[in-house]
Amino acid sequence: MAHPVALALLAAAATAAATAAASAWDAGHTIADIHPRTAERHPPPMADDLHTRYMDAAATWRAHQANCTACQSSPRCEAGAPLFERFARLQDAYLTRRRST
To answer: Which residues contact 65 (CB under 8 A, 6 or more apart)?
Structure first.
């Protein structure tokens, strides 16, 4: 078993190497470029706009539901129904897009 100090030094060296490699990549590419190694490990990022709208709709619906006793049961109030519908549509679109990539 390795000594804890040796493990810490190895971790620091690995971090320094990764930082140096990232800096070398950044020096020759724009911020919009995707590092080839990152693209291999992770699927392409989702459209931030869709995710942002989905999260905003979820937060808006949760805030309304927390303060509206009518929306805490099955039938939704007149103001809550469109909020929930928007949240549900955006959630469906986001999850469908996630599954297709």
So the answer is: 71, 72, 80
CB-count exposure of residue 84 (10 Å: 0-12, 13-18, 19+): middle
Compute the Cα dihedral for 91, 93, 97, 100 and give only its sign.
positive
- What pLDDT shows up at residue 16? 55
> The whole model's pTM is what?
0.51
* Consecutive H or E run containing 99: helix 80-100
Q: Tell the residue number behind the tokens 């519908």, with chain if given.
A: 85
Helix, strand or coil, per DSSP, at residue 22: helix
Tell me the domain boundaries of the chain.
4-41, 48-100
DSSP letter at 5? H
What pLDDT does residue 25 have? 47
pLDDT band at 59; cut points 50, 70, 90: very high
Cα-atom radius of gyration of the chain, to the nearest Å?
Answer: 23
